[in-house]
Amino acid sequence: MIGNALIIGLAFAYLGLLFGVAYWADRRADQGRSVIAHPTIYALSLAVYCTAWTFYGSVGRAAASGLDFLTIYLGPTLMALLWGSLLVKMVRVSKAERITSIADFIGSRYGKSQVLGGLVTVIAVVGVVPYIALQLKAIAWSFQILHHYPEVRMPGDGDQPLWGDTAFVIALLLAAFTILFGTRQLDASERHEGLVAAIAVESLVKLVAFLVAGVYITYRLLNLEGVAPPPSLPPLSPDIPPLLDWLAISGLAALAVMLLPRQFQVAVVENGDVRHVRRAIWLFPLYLFLINLFVLPIAVAGLVVFPDGDVDADTFMLTLPIAFEQPWLALLVFVGGLSAATGMVIVETIALSTMVSNDLILPLLLRRARGRSPPADLGRRLLAIRRGAIVAILLLGYLYYRFAGEAYALVSIGLISFVAVAQFAPAVIGGLYWRGGTREGALAGLSAGFLVWVYTLLLPSFAKSAWLPVAFMESGPGGLDLLAPLALFGVVGWNEITHGLFWSLTANIVAFVAVSALREPNAVEAAQARLFVDVERRAALKRATLWRGSAEVAELRALAERFLGVERTQAAFGRFAQARGIADPAALPADGETVDFAETLLSGAVGGASARVMVASVTDEEAIGLDEVLSILDEASQIRAYSRELERKSLALEAATAELREANRRLTELDRMKDDFMSSVTHELRTPLASIRAFSEILHDDPDLPLEQRRRFLGILVSETERLSRLVSQVLDLAKIESGHVDWRTEVVSLQAVIDQALAATGRLVAERGIEVRQDVPAAPALVWADRDRLVQVLVNLLSNAAKFAPPAAGRVGIRLVAAGPGWRLCVSDNGPGIPEADRGLVFEKFRQSASGGKPLGTGLGLPISRQIVEHLGGRLWVAGGTGKGATLCFELPAHRPAQAERGSDYDQTHPDHR
Amino acid sequence: MPHTRLLHKRLLAVFLAALLLLFSPLVLPLEGAGRWFGIPVLFIYLFAVWGGVIAAAAWVLSRLGD
Fold first, then answer.
1. CATH code of the region A629-735
2. Using CA atoms, how far apart are residues A155 and A618, in angstroms rounded to an integer?
3. Which CATH architecture has domain A4-406?
4. Start-end of CATH 1.20.1730.10 domains in chain A
5. A709-753 pLDDT, tens per residue?
6. Which residues on A lie below 8 Å from B15 (Cβ)?
7. Using the beta-carbon criterion (under 8 Å), do A84 and B28 form an inter-chain contact?
8. Does B37 touch chain A (CB under 8 A)?
9. Stretch A786-803: mean pLDDT, rounded?
10. Chain A: residue nearest B24 by CA?
């Protein structure tokens, strides 16, 4: 037995917890330390999508018709994948325009229309109030079922006194909660921190309750006594509905998850940071996935435990723990269901009350005050209206529940509500991507869709509840079969939801597009269209540029103060002035920008359409024609294009500057190198010149010099002159190669021939120094494409270097020619002192010789020239081998392949081996 | 911006794959596919694809900024 006191105490304790959480979060927000500014909290708050209908109803649907309950969750999963662009865009627009509800969104989009906002509000209230009733019913049911513990008894219609009716008490409590945390301030575009925190907690509670119950019931199902192992479990139909319905209802749920007033409230209005959407793209579907994981096992368990069908499948969640005699589990499920229902009711009521006060009642009040400035206490009055609306909506829901009770009209309301809000889709999604929609178009579309919805879904549900003659459903009004509500225009055999969705959306879209096509959008519509469609490129486009007229800043401030209070208005104007670089808010110019700021500020409290009317009442706006608006807008986009062009050019300029700087750096470097080279050359030239001059002077001044000495001096003169001319010709050579003025006579050259020629040229030096030359050369001709004379020059250079550095008498010089990859490698080695590791790069610099050679033995230009030549011929020259065993210099040249040779080249035909 | 565009492209790819796997005639043959350890194969398939879609979206977002 679970006492009444325990159940009620638990319910109150739970609601108390919600109050506590909300209060705490509001306090934290006031201190500037928001607890809800977190993407996970955002995703959890979106889970307000899962109502009591999910918590209890999914199991019922699964038991009755298999897998079709999944449509309600698979659709939103897919929709979430598109949120990265779609929902982000809605959030951006709403932040910029301070949108307060979906009615405000649609009204603002189509020229800030009050009528449109009002129509959306009516549709939302008519479509959603029965849905709220369903939640209250779920709460009342769960009370009554739990009350009968340990008996499993279905709740009867037992007439209770009003005050004993739990649903009524709960409705009042929820009204109190919503008023307390949902209407703290008039600015509805500000976030309700406490409320969102409470909703996130509720989402956690219902998920945990469902998972715990699911695990336990599945465990019991697998261990049921007297029932055979799983394969023979009752054949719960594991099928999905026909593909058309499967797709249509998923699509419907996908739209509902964005367009239901409560979903719009948590996803768009309460969004604190547009980046939070990204986490929700996968976290929200994950939530849906988890909460559906155990639906099927629970449905199967229900069908096994209650085989007679006298227990409503919608109550399996609660009746199964009772049947298993688990009072605590039953209480946990009860709390889970309570949280699912209350979360939905609270957020839905807030959203609807904002819409009713801003888009329905306020426009009526303003109309009565026609033209005159709104009354001074309108702000406080509006807050009272909002509170009254909350109570009224909840009472309406309660009355519907009392009145409809067990009727079909209530039981089937979930999907019917979804279809009602799906009517917003063409206006919202079309409005975000299509500039052509007009106010009349949106009005026509919404009205047509709504009327068809009433006709094909609402009235039949009344008929099935026996409030209307059933005959009406079967044959249309006046016996016109073609107009039968469930088979419009002869469409038979469709699921009624699919049928109603198809016809209502068709009527909606056709009317929206057709009526929009009647005329061009007017000035305000065109401006709003740009603001919504191009929200991502807002930077260069401001509505302010479209405003012309005269206004008084003081009056604008006074108007804002009436709704936002003196303090908040002052702060907002102060921030605005600061952003414009004006110290004193009173000195703000009364221009378009200021007027636009005041209007947007006001929008957050009273909605875009009403804000426009009110601002217009205190300012004198000149009408701007459509042509002018369009030209201003075009100008804006032209300026945007110019600035983009400018940016591109300045980037190009920057790149060019950098290139120039680099070129200059290289020039300076080359200049420095040239100077170095010049000074080295002059230094090298001076040394032989100095000795030539000195010996010439001796010979000139001293005619009595002995012949022997005279001959010796003349010998020195000759050799120094030779050295000098060699140096000059090498400098010339190097200069020619470096400047590219050399005539390269390239042809097919056999390296063997080059070696022979070079050995002949250095033969005298080698013989003089008594050096032994060893050759290791393959017999097959090694062919390369090169300039023969230059190659000989390189090899002569290497050989004479080797000969110079090899020790006299015992010197050995080796020549080795091998194939290396795609080319030939020729190495010349000696047994001289070698080249230390550190000098190996230096020997290729001009006028550098390896220090280990002691007295310089060459001009210091041979190796640099050789390297230039080899590199020009496409090869490389480098120092190989270790020290101690003499120096080895190698070069590689790419092998010449006859196939590559041009026809008629002077390829040596005498070589037989030419593959 | 190119970053965001890449993100949208990848999520769109996941969306289209999910559409094909969950809402096309591909699902139909599984209705009569019987049971696996007493669990309808269709049920397992739907939840596996569902979980896979969520994992793919989470992976895409973890790679490109969450």
1. 1.10.287.130
2. 59
3. Up-down Bundle (1.20)
4. 4-406
5. 888 888 888 888 888 888 888 888 888 887 777 778 888 888 888
6. 78, 81-82
7. no
8. yes
9. 86
10. A243
